[in-house]
């Protein structure tokens, strides 16, 4: 016999029957439906509600015995899934966690146990045995956090002395012949069809060597003529070889109470009916015999048990956190992420989204460029976006700046940096956006009118230094040339990646600034250019303005490594100054073709993403237009230094240029002064005319040397 | 007629035949209709033991959420339900059910008709026995590695997270944008050989296994 176990060996004379308890199984839809019910129907109503679950006897070995509740649980008239048995329950949904904790669980259990006991005594349970599998569900739904507390109870009436096993569990195939098994399956299906059901929770059974007969519980008196030994069948959701499932418990109480005095032994068939790969079998059903103690009608309701243990094995409730699948904000986040992940599945399998998503972006300027850059960053799943701008939204802005609306212009206009953050959060609540309404001090725009203006400028510089330190990528998206100077210097000093976008009327430039090598070389390895970048840049690169390429035939501008690339100011031979002073209105304002900012803003973000995908990041060798036919350096393609676009020709070119050793922003001498003198150096720049920086960097000298010469010039077609 | 497309009434017929076969095979498909509407969908649930790993492949946010969700059985101190106040008798007749280290997952598969794509669409989700839906990464980790690779590289399918059109709950969906394309050659062959076939059955035999849906070969005898 296959069922020889240690249990059997220990004491064959005094074996007590043990039952496999139900485990609760909730489908996701159940909680969604409970939430809807709580919000729309129940509201503060705590009265008990009828719900319905079901159990199944066709599981493969190893699966837990379950009572399942799905979204249709609240509709007790909904059809039960085919070949499953329904179980009716009572839902107690409390309004507070406190009520959930303090509600008298013992009383709840006893109440249902009493109902079952009364139904047994009155005979109602004989007619409708589903009463025997009643259950209780206690819940508290915290709909702010989407935490659900719950506790199931499957009430079972107990025999004080337990139930003695007369004959141990065997598989049906060990007890029944193939013929009997076939007959049983046939009569079971027949009775189901007869009753218009696809499963019967309990049935009576008698058999000969040739045939099996079964009947409903209510037909006991006519079905059994001899009650010395009777056989009852239960639809058994358990898959264990040695134990019947929970639904048997109350049936045995019923049998003992109604017929116990007449019964000698009761044979129990735990009917298990599974189909694997189209092959149906009931051979693995389990049969055993018990001796039932009496439970006389006069007696009070027996002791009952049934509260489910939690996963820790303790008597206590369970909690499930469903914020991920119910909180709309979390849903938005996972949908956005999933959308991005799809790129990786097929199109760009090696795409490292982590690098993109975790990049903290500082957007200096929240105008046409800033708005478009922010939107594209959000499309890439970037979570950390910080705006700096000192302007207010004016009536002309919303049509070109997609984060603002007409309403934002009223009453003098909202601050751009603040309004942009609000809008970003509305578009995607998962974003971590911050806004700083502040000015960026500029060369040629004196700050020394008073002590107050001076200390304000100092504060602004410190704030900007702090912000640049805290972010990974700095976007320069302002509308003046000179406002880009300070962040260029700070970012170069802090070795932060800078992506710069600037617009003309129908031209734009999007570029990454050269990323200087780390200032202090900590590793001793002897890289060729391992000395601090400042000096190496100046010594190894010839000035574009001055000399011709030293090696004939090799382009000066091909294969420039990232640390030797120039910045926005490297191509200039004049220091930034007050560019608004001698300009007409159309030159001062950003007058550009309306599509330009979207194009440039999008390209700025895509350039950042491509840089991030390169194994060397900001140190990546600059791709140029010539590389368009070559194997791209990243999964997303080229990593250019600059993209210069000409809308009139609908054409982009990808130039690359070296850092200029006399650059007014990133040259070693400027960085050196900034790093040593900090604000006192910066304030000199703010307060002086062009000549201060030009003298410092040697541009003045250069001017004298190349008087009236045609200066190497890329068509840096800035409007301002 | 657009070969590759499926008309709604043909969809119903195909589903009806599939249901009959499922009943025969006891495969568990059922038709769920929506109250007060002729619309409905085929539904099947399956419980499987699975080992899920929650280290989402790239989402930092995700893994944070997951670990939070996995600790959902822990009370924080202010939420402590005093077990002393809970007067509940322990049972001495319940057997201890051996619980392995594996978790059990409930899978739900829904087949709906898409009017805009004129194809069937497969919706699915998986949840724990507590009713917590899994993230897609968690679902993958429970799917056989061969299928993971196949699905990720399959040109046939794209998965997105969508609200179930009839239930309004979040589900994953195998996007139908390529369905007509991959069905067309199959239908063409059948047409050339003057054989009729069950669109839904053929389609499901292709897409089902990709998301762990067991679809027995016996259905192949049902191709009308």
UniProtKB/TrEMBL annotation, chain A:
Residues 520-552 are annotated as: Disordered. InterPro entries: Atg7, Atg7_N, Atg7_N_1, Atg7_N_2, ThiF/MoeB/HesA, ThiF_NAD_FAD-bd, Ubiquitin-activating_enz. It holds the Pfam family ATG7_N. It is found in: Cytoplasm; Preautophagosomal structure. Residues 530-552 have a biased composition (Low complexity). Residues 447-474 form a coiled coil. One of its GO terms (molecular function) is Atg8 activating enzyme activity. Residues 343-617 form the THIF-type NAD/FAD binding fold domain. Keywords: Autophagy, Biological rhythms, Coiled coil, Cytoplasm, Protein transport, Transport, Ubl conjugation pathway. The active site is at residue 589. One of its GO terms (biological process) is autophagosome assembly. Residues 17-326 form the Ubiquitin-like modifier-activating enzyme Atg7 N-terminal domain. SUPFAM superfamilies: Activating enzymes of the ubiquitin-like proteins. GO terms for cellular component: phagophore assembly site. E1-like activating enzyme involved in the 2 ubiquitin-like systems required for cytoplasm to vacuole transport (Cvt) and autophagy. Activates ATG12 for its conjugation with ATG5 as well as the ATG8 family proteins for their conjugation with phosphatidylethanolamine. Both systems are needed for the ATG8 association to Cvt vesicles and autophagosomes membranes. Required for autophagic death induced by caspase-8 inhibition. Belongs to the ATG7 family. Homodimer. This is Ubiquitin-like modifier-activating enzyme ATG7. It comes from Betta splendens. The gene is atg7.
Automatic annotation (TrEMBL), chain B:
The keyword Glycoprotein does not apply. Keywords: Autophagy, Transferase, Ubl conjugation pathway. GO terms for molecular function: Atg12 conjugating enzyme activity. GO terms for cellular component: cytosol. GO terms for biological process: autophagosome assembly; autophagy of mitochondrion; protein modification by small protein conjugation. InterPro entries: Atg3/Atg10. It holds the Pfam family Autophagy_act_C. Belongs to the ATG10 family. This is Ubiquitin-like-conjugating enzyme ATG10. The gene is atg10.
């Amino acid at each position: 016999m296959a069922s020889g176990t240690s249990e059997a060996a220990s004491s064959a004379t005094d074996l007590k029957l043990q039952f496999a308890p139900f485990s609760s199984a909730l489908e996701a839809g159940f909680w969604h439906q409970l939430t809807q019910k709580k919000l729309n129907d129940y509201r503060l109503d705590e009265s008990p509600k009828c719900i319905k679950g079901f159990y199944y006897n066709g599981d493969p070995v190893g699966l837990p015995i379950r009572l399942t509740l799905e979204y249709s649980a609240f509709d007790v008239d909904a059809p039960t899934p085919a070949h499953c048995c329904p179980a009716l329950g009572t839902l107690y949904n409390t309004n507070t966690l406190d009520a959930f904790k303090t509600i008298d669980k013992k009383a709840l259990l006893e109440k249902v146990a009493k109902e079952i006991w009364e139904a047994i005594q009155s005979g109602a349970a004989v007619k409708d045995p589903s009463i025997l599998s009643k259950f209780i569900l206690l819940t508290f739904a915290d709909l702010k956090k989407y935490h659900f507390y719950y506790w199931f109870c499957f009430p079972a009436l107990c025999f004080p002395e337990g139930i003695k096993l007369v004959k141990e569990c065997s598989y049906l195939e060990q007890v029944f012949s193939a013929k009997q098994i076939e007959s049983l399956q046939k009569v079971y299906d027949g009775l189901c069809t007869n009753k218009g059901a696809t499963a019967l929770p309990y049935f009576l059974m008698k058999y000969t060597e040739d045939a099996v007969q079964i009947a409903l519980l209510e037909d006991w008196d006519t079905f059994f003529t001899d009650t010395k030994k009777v056989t009852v069948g239960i639809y058994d959701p358990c898959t264990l070889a040695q134990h019947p499932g929970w639904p048997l418990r109350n049936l045995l109480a019923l049998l003992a109470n109604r017929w116990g005095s007449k019964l000698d032994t009761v044979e129990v068939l735990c009917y298990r009916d599974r189909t694997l790969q189209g092959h149906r079998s009931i051979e693995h059903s389990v049969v055993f015999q018990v001796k039932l103690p009496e439970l006389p009608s006069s007696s009070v309701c027996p002791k009952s048990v049934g509260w489910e243990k939690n996963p820790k094995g303790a008597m206590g409730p369970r909690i499930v956190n469903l914020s991920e699948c119910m909180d709309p904000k979390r849903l938005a986040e996972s949908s956005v992420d999933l959308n991005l992940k799809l790129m990786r599945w097929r199109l760009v399998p090696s795409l490292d989204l982590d690098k993109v998503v975790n990049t903290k972006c500082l957007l200096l300027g929240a105008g046409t460029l800033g708005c478009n850059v922010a939107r594209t960053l959000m499309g890439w799943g970037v979570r950390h976006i910080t705006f700096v701008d000192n302007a207010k939204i004016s009536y002309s802005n919303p049509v070109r700046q997609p984060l603002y609306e007409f309403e934002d212009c009223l009453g003098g206009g909202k601050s751009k940096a603040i309004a942009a953050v609000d809008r970003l959060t509305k578009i995607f609540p998962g974003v971590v956006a911050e806004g700083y309404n502040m000015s960026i001090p500029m060369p040629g725009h004196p700050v020394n009118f008073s002590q107050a203006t001076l200390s304000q400028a100092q504060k602004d510089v410190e704030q900007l230094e702090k912000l640049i330190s805290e972010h990974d990528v700095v976007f320069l998206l302002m509308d003046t040339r000179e406002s880009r100077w300070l962040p260029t210097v700070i970012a170069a000093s802090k070795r932060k990646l800078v992506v710069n976008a600037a617009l003309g009327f129908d031209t734009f430039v999007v570029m990454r600034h050269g990323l200087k090598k780390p200032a202090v070389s900590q590793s001793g390895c002897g890289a060729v250019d391992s000395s601090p970048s400042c000096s190496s840049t100046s010594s190894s690169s010839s000035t574009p303005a001055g000399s011709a390429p030293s090696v004939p035939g090799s382009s000066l501008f091909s294969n420039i490594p990232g640390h030797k690339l120039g910045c926005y100011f490297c191509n200039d031979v004049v220091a930034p100054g007050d560019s608004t002073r001698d300009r007409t209105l159309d030159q001062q304002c950003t007058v550009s073709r309306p599509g330009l900012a979207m194009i440039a803003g999008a390209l700025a973000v895509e350039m950042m993403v491509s840089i991030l995908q390169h194994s060397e990041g900001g140190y990546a060798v600059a791709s140029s237009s010539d590389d368009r036919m070559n194997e791209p350096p990243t999964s997303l393609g080229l990593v250019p230094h600059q993209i210069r676009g000409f809308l009139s020709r609908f054409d982009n070119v990808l130039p690359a240029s070296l850092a200029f050793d006399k650059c007014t922003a990133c040259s070693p001498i400027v960085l050196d002064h900034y790093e040593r003198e900090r604000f006192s150096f910066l304030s000199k720049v703010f307060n002086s005319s062009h000549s201060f920086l030009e003298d410092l960097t040697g541009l003045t000298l250069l001017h004298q040397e190349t008087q009236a010469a045609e200066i190497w010039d890329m068509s840096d077609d800035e409007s301002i | 007629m657009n070969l590759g497309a499926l008309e709604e009434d043909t969809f119903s017929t195909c589903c009806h035949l599939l249901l009959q076969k499922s009943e025969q095979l006891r495969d568990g498909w059922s038709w769920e209709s929506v109250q007060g509407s002729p619309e409905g969908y085929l539904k099947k649930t399956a419980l499987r033991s699975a080992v899920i790993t929650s280290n989402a492949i790239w989402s930092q946010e995700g893994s944070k959420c997951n670990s939070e969700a996995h600790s959902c059985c822990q009370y924080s101190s202010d939420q402590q339900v005093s077990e002393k106040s809970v007067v509940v008798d322990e049972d001495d007749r319940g057997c201890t059910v051996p619980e392995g280290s594996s978790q059990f997952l409930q899978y739900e598969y829904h087949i709906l008709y898409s009017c805009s794509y004129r194809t069937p669409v497969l919706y699915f989700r998986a949840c724990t026995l507590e009713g917590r839906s899994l993230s897609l990464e968690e679902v993958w980790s429970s799917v056989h590695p061969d299928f993971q690779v196949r699905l990720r590289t399959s040109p046939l399918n794209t998965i997105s997270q969508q609200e179930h059109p009839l239930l309004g709950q979040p589900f994953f969906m195998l996007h139908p944008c390529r369905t007509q394309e991959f069905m067309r050659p199959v239908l063409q062959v059948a047409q050339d050989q003057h054989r009729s076939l069950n669109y839904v059955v053929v389609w499901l035999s292709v897409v089902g296994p990709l998301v762990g849906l067991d679809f027995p070969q016996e259905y192949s005898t049902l191709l009308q």
